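Hello Y.,

Per our agreement to keep a running log of every chain we model this quarter, I'm adding this entry. I've kept the format consistent with earlier entries: sequence first, then predicted structure.
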Amino acid sequence: MPELPETETIARDLDRAISGNAIVDVRVTRKDVLREVGAATMRERLVGAVITRAWRRAKLIVLDLSTRDRIVVQPRFTGALLIDAGQLPDEERRYSTVELVLDSERSLHYRDIRRLGTVALMNEQRFAEYSGALGQEPLDDAFTVERLSAILRSSRQAVKRVLMDQRRVVGVGNIYANEVLWRAGLDPSQPAATLSPAEIDRLHRELGDVLRAAVTARGTSFRDYRDASGSRGSFAEQLQAYGREGEPCARCGRRLIVTHEIDGRSTVFCYACQR
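Predicted structure for the entry above:
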């Protein structure tokens, strides 16, 4: 599933590429990805609107419109927003669920192979309500060590669970939770409230560093993630934990192990140095 670095990459690409473009047509081929409004209402409210900005909130890609509506896309596992100037491969176009035809003779496709992601249209009030239920942005200046400490100390759940709880901290999924905890040298199953001030400080630093490095590398691609031009991210080459179970720990040389006991997801860690 695209996490913060992947959705941030897509949003930045779209902001550069299509801000200022007007929507001249909307084609919905798979209605089951729509949320909040149906296909007819979506077309009625979008045709003629100008895309004024593309940005990210949590794991969402948000398109601000001149009408004050917002298109809110949650890609989940196989979703992608792809710009098509007439050269999009048939393989990608075949899985297009929603197409926004732009006045620049291009289209923006929401492509989703498994159709687990969503495309919603919200007015300002509805988006504020929706966004308000989400947690803190870990790359914002307001996300201080003190703020992270307050979040952790309010929970007895495993620290990995807290990092991935979108009501507390947004944008962090399984890939980056594994990586951040390995780099911070923390046991993923440790109750969040028991972390020491030094451990919280280390976690805060590594969380910011890992997410910023992944944004610079344009995200992590294993199978499905692609940026707005269809290219892959390169952060997988820098991963020291996720996807490396059975390999030597880069810090101590012991073999990395995997468990599904913490949250049902694959947690890769070093039993020797994450304690």
